[in-house]
C-alpha cells in the first residue's frame, strides 16, 4: 500500500491543534526539577509540561568558576549541548577522567556514570541545553572523594579511528 503521508488512525478526534507541535518559550521554563548543588536546571519538555513520553529536555546554567556535586542519572542517557562558555566534565568512580567542551560541542553521558560538570571559566556563565532519554528527570547525587589530578581523555571517534 503506498505511503500517502497521512495516518488517519493516529489523528486525535479533535485534530492536532492542541496535541501536535508545541512551542515552549524560553522564558517559561520550570526550575521545579531535580537539582544538584552548583547548577541551575530548568525543564522545558517533560510529561507534565508537553506530554512527552520518552524524553526530557531543558537548560542548565553553571555560574562562573562553579562546579556541581558528583551525581548520575540512573538508567537515563543524557546529551548536553554547550551553548556558551567552557565546560569541563569529570567522570568515573573517583572522577578520575576529564574532558572539555565548548560552544557547539555535544557531550554524551551514559547511564549510571558518576560525573561532575565544571565551569572552566572564571568570567562567563556556562549555558547548556540538556536532553534525557525519559520524561522524568532522575538525579542521584553522590558523595565521592575526587582524585586530585584527573586524567585527560580525548574523544576518539569509534567509526573513524585514527
Keywords, separated by commas or semicolons:
1 helix; 5-stranded antiparallel sheet; single chain; 4-stranded mixed sheet; 162 residues; mainly beta; Jelly Rolls
The CATH topology assignment is Jelly Rolls
| Helical run tally | 1
Radius of gyration: 19 Å
Report the helical percentage.
under 10%
From the 3D coordinates, which CATH architecture would you assign? Sandwich
CATH class: Mainly Beta
Instruction: Give the mean pLDDT.
Output: 86
Q: Which of globular, elongated, flat, extended, rod-shaped describes the shape?
A: elongated
Overview of the molecule:
The chain is mostly beta strands and 162 residues long. The protein has a single domain, classed as Jelly Rolls (Sandwich). Helix content is 2%, strand content 32%. The chain has one helix and eleven strands. The chain has one helix spanning 47-50; strands spanning 40-45, 56-62, 71-72, 78-84, 87-91, 97-101, 106-109, 115-119, 126-132, 140-141, 151-152. The strands form three sheets. A five-stranded antiparallel sheet has the order 1-2-9-4-7. Strands 8-5-6-11 form a four-stranded mixed sheet, with no helix packed on it. It has a two-stranded antiparallel ribbon with strand order 3-10.
